[in-house]
Write a structure and sequence with these properties.
347 residues, alpha/beta, Potassium Channel Kv1.1, Chain A, 3 domains, four-stranded mixed sheet, three-stranded antiparallel sheet, 13 helices, 9 strands
């Protein structure tokens, strides 16, 4: 699909005029906007000298170099901004100090030019983060993942942080297993380890068994699905072991002074003990709301007995218990990564 020159939608307002054209340093480039289809129509007739401008998406103030996308869109930008943002692009520019667009006949247009492998859409989005203007996020999840992979390839550590933050604000977290698997598959495709691990942990919130893997083969290959399932099994095993230890040592220290009708062998309320057990089997129940639901259910069933004081459990006791429990759960997640599970499977 051709890139539709979204410069009209970006925030480079100093380069745009309200009567509908993009102005370069010397030449004025007229375009027509079709409001019925929201597409940009370029003039059918143009002189050879105008051709390099025909796909000019960005003309940034102080530009002294041209970046050219793989689909032949042009971005006039300051060289220093690109070099400072990426050591990889900086090296690429230094290796081509005198290369210029062979099609440019206009002296103002004929700046040093660097060919990139990325599309115009991805290049444009990346440049909005480099040049510190309003960020542009690609229109699809897959392109957003590609944008992250490009920033990672070019070793843009600071920009990666900003892109991740903008994507998190732009796209809501997945609320079902299939969308989560799709994001995980894209993260694996583009080599994005943080996104793969984060999504794999999100997928822990959903039941995933060998039996239902066959229904997901349209999303990702069977081998990858099996590796993800092995990761889940490994995490659940570690979580169950750590929570068993927490039930006998950590939890009792946070529940001192609490009176209840029923206790386990470690002298913590039976309902608290059962809530901890359920987390090992269903990690998505690790949620303070779920804990409060369990407490309310217990109070309704047992709390009216004289010996039960759980209804008056202090907020500080709940907070202390939750901090320690969260440390255990997150520690269990951190003991295994998706790549650890993959490596164990290959051995």
């Amino acid at each position: 699909m051709p890139y539709s020159v979204p410069a009209l939608r970006c925030t480079f307002t100093s380069l745009l005029r309200l009567d509908g054209y993009l102005k370069g340093p010397q030449d004025t480039f007229y375009i027509t906007q079709d409001y019925a289809t929201m597409s940009t129509i370029f003039p059918e007739t143009a002189s050879p000298a105008d051709e390099p401008l025909a796909n000019l998406v960005l003309d940034y103030p102080g530009a002294d170099i041209i970046l050219r996308s793989r689909d032949s869109y042009y971005f006039r930008v300051p060289k220093i901004s690109i070099i400072n943002s990426s050591p990889v692009l900086g090296e690429l520019i230094q290796r081509n100090p005198d290369s210029s667009d062979s099609g440019a006949t206009n002296a103002e247009v004929s700046l040093p030019s660097v060919q990139l492998r990325e599309s115009g859409e991805i290049t444009h989005c990346l440049l909005t983060f480099i040049l510190l203007v309003t960020p542009r996020i690609p229109p699809t999840r897959e392109e957003s993942m590609e944008l992250l992979s490009v920033a990672q390839k070019y070793q843009m550590e600071t920009i990666l942080i900003h892109i991740r933050g903008s994507i998190a604000q732009h796209y809501s977290p997945p609320t079902d297993l299939r969308p989560a698997l799709r994001i995980y598959s894209l993260a694996q495709k583009y080599g994005l380890r943080p996104e793969a691990l984060q999504t794999a942990r999100t997928i822990l919130n959903y039941p995933m068994t060998i039996e239902n893997i066959d229904n997901m083969l349209d999303i990702m290959p069977g081998a990858s699905l099996y590796e993800l399932w092995k990761y889940h099994e490994r995490v659940r095993a570690i979580l169950a072991s750590d929570l068993t230890e927490f039930r006998t040592s950590g939890a009792p220290r946070t529940m001192t002074g609490l009176q209840c009708e029923e206790y386990n062998s470690s002298h913590i309320p039976h309902w608290v003990d059962q809530y901890i057990v359920t987390i090992a089997n269903t990690p998505n129940l690790f949620d303070l709301i779920e804990f409060n639901i369990a407490m309310v259910r217990h109070v309704e069933e047992k709390g009216k007995k004289p010996g039960c004081k759980c209804a008056s459990m202090s907020s500080q006791t709940i907070r202390d218990f939750w901090v320690v429990l969260a440390s255990v759960v997150h520690g269990s997640f951190g003991k295994v990564s998706v790549h650890d599970a993959q490596n164990r499977q290959r051995c």
